[in-house]
Design a protein that fits this description.
The protein has 248 residues and is of the alpha+beta class. It has 6 helices and 15 strands.
Length: 248
């Protein structure tokens, strides 16, 4: 995934916000904030589940479909830049609706070391029509087995700043004059404290253009908000997809 210069400016801003919150707070961190917590979808009026217009989707003819998305969640809960991918056949209307609503959705921000931090969030939207009525489910993970079982599972979320060296995906030097969209799949083992224990490249497409190496380089020194299962941090073995798009 590649968001270009604007993405980098946005990242500097949100990391700056997180840093300023730390330096300007003279008193100890509030005990109300945990050591760590993932960014959460929430259920308020600004949440994604309440933003998506399911009735309008049915009127437009959307059938059963699913789409994956990723986004940066700022310490305020605002979404800074987002992308959709891996949609099922005939999911175009759902994809358009999700992208539209992500632009004015708020999430519950992630917490690390008792303060809000910007994170990379992975989610999946599943839309279905049951007896002529819409059914919408949104999951905070992209693991096929977890999605099939509709488990309460949240993917580990790489965060920016503090002791994490993660600065987001960077488009590689492919050696080609044609700027292609690329994707790499990484198998990650992240412990219950958010430390990366192991990482392997599962696949890259197109091959031999550096997308796999770029993904490994981008995530090698990342720290994570750990995966959560049923509200508790757990060690996880997940596959995360890293998308690279050339800047405009």
């Amino acid at each position: 995934m590649r968001f270009g210069t604007f993405w980098l400016v946005g990242l500097l801003l949100i990391v700056g916000v997180a840093s300023s919150q730390t330096t300007k707070t003279a008193s100890p961190a509030t005990p109300a904030l945990p050591m760590y917590r993932p960014a959460l979808l929430g259920t308020g009026p600004d949440s994604l589940v309440n933003r998506i217009d399911t009735v309008d989707l049915i009127k437009k003819g959307q059938k059963d479909a699913a789409i994956m998305f990723s986004c940066i969640v700022a310490p305020t809960g605002d979404i800074l830049l987002s992308e959709t991918y891996r949609g099922t056949p005939e999911s175009k209307l759902l994809e358009q609706e999700v992208l539209k609503r992500l632009s004015n959705t708020k999430l519950i921000p992630a917490i690390h070391n008792h303060k809000p931090v910007p994170v990379f969030f992975y989610g999946t939207v599943v839309f279905s029509v049951v007896n002529g009525k819409p059914r919408l489910r949104i999951f905070s993970n992209q693991q096929v087995d977890e999605l099939k079982k509709e488990n309460d599972f949240i993917d580990p979320q790489p965060y920016f700043g503090d002791d994490s060296k993660f600065t987001g995906p960077h488009y590689p030097d492919t050696g080609s004059t044609v700027r292609l969209t690329g994707v790499a799949e990484l198998a990650l083992n992240v412990d219950a404290a958010g430390n990366l224990k192991n990482m392997q490249l599962v696949s890259e497409s197109p091959p031999l253009l550096g997308f796999g190496g770029a993904a490994i380089s981008d995530f090698r020194e990342a720290k994570f908000i750990p995966a959560f299962r049923n509200g508790q941090p757990v060690e996880s073995k997940v596959t995360l997809r890293v998308y690279f798009k050339p800047s405009d």
